[in-house]
Amino acid sequence: MTLQLAYLTDFAYIASIALFILALKWLSSPASARHGVLAGEIGAALAVATTLFNPEVVQYKWIMVALLVGTMIGIPLGLVHMTAVPQRTAMSHAFGALAAATIGISEYYVSLPRLTKFGMTEIALEVIIGSLSFTGSLIAAGKLQEILPQRPITYRGQNFVSLSVLGCAVVLALILILHPGYSVLFPVMVIVSLIFGVLLVTPIGGADMPTVISLLNSYVGLSAALLGFVLDSKVLVVAGALDGSSGFILSVIMCKAMNRSFTNVMFGAFGQLQAGPAGPKEERIVRSATAEEAAAILSAANSVIIVPGYGMAVAQAQHKVRELYDVLTKRGVDVKFGIHPVAGRMPGHMNVLLAEADIPYDKLVDMETANSDMPQTDVALVIGANDVTNPAAKTEQGSPIYGMPIIEVDKARTVMVIKRSMAAGFAGIENPLYYFDKTLMLFGDAKAFVGDILRELTGGGSHI
Length: 464
Ligand code: NAP
Known about the structure:
Strand order of the largest sheet: 3-2-1-4-5-6
Low-confidence stretches: 273-278
Mean pLDDT: 90
Bound molecules: NADP nicotinamide-adenine-dinucleotide phosphate
Radius of gyration: 26 Å
Oligomer: single chain
Structural class: alpha/beta
Order of helices and strands: HHHHHHHHHHHEHHEHEHEHEEH
């Protein structure tokens, strides 16, 4: 490589690293998120293009084939419905991990004759993490897509079996580090790591998959960073480190917002339906209201906080919610949106949906602000949210969500909840909110019910 080309290459890689950092910075706010996506895309394209111009690339045939296959898989993945984004993300991680693992495997065979102990350590670590992340991500995607059973699959001695398999992979890696030439052991180490990925994720319930995905994301990033060392690629080291650390930080944020520990996520078998106490259940009264009544209450209110959740995403009700926001605002009602950090099924789920419907960013308030405004609020309108409003998180010590911070809608003067039935949410537990005197249940699909309220507010109703 000529000196000028080397400088140009370094400059292009530094530019893509800067773009990756800017992408993460901008992605942290809804207002700048679109710029963040664009910066990430340009950074990745620049890094790939620069690598393709490397004189060490001697032929393009197989690269073109890979590009074609990648495009054929990538386009349909990019078109999936919003509610399928968690499993789509798991598939992306699986492909990223597969790429890292296979490059590590080929590096082993290519550099075998002159492989040092240090080089072997890098390859072994990278291949183990890449392989387990590949199968782990596939299992996570399968659970989220409900191809595999969502429930945690556990059995006696499971942790012992899983840790023994991981121990086996580590022992094989240690032998290979001491004797890189024992090539017969290398494929065994890969297979054992692939099996460990399956064992790691299978016992975890579908409910915890978003956190697991984000954790696997950090593993894939770590694997890519290690691959960067193996290939002596600084851009890969930095990109992998950014990916790994951001995935880890996201997992920590999600665990905190659910008041759960990593151990509880990985071994807690969360999301199984909770058995109720034995004996006859006391009859409790649930008050329900019609769209007409709900519209009357909303039009008499001065302030409304809308709390969206997973049901709004499933129903794709965000555009109707936007119309409701417009109609109420025009009538002089102060409308805000209280966003819980883990509402929905992925971080930022509600922000993305509401941004898609062009709801002004400054109307989205975080959980703390929503809670401090709640006692002065006339109506808390819960749309397809359940767990994130469940007062049991504060009052019932035995509850699986005990300690999880919630949006305290029960502090508002009136609570209205749009959902289709009395069914439980993600955590599989009852919500005492639905039996409070101040709560009105609005039974129906979120999009259809908000549409009915709108019709009442805009003239379809008789008395408004
Ligand atoms: P949720 O507790 O899962 O409740 C969603 C509710 O939406 C359900 O009770 C369901 O009741 C209702 N619903 C479903 N489809 C609907 C439709 N078409 N129309 C109207 N309602 C509908 O959701 P959440 O309150 O948003 O809480 C999120 C949960 O996910 C939390 O437990 C959180 O810990 C967990 N979680 C989130 C993340 C994340 O990153 N966001 C990650 C991991 C875990 P019906 O069936 O009666 O309609």
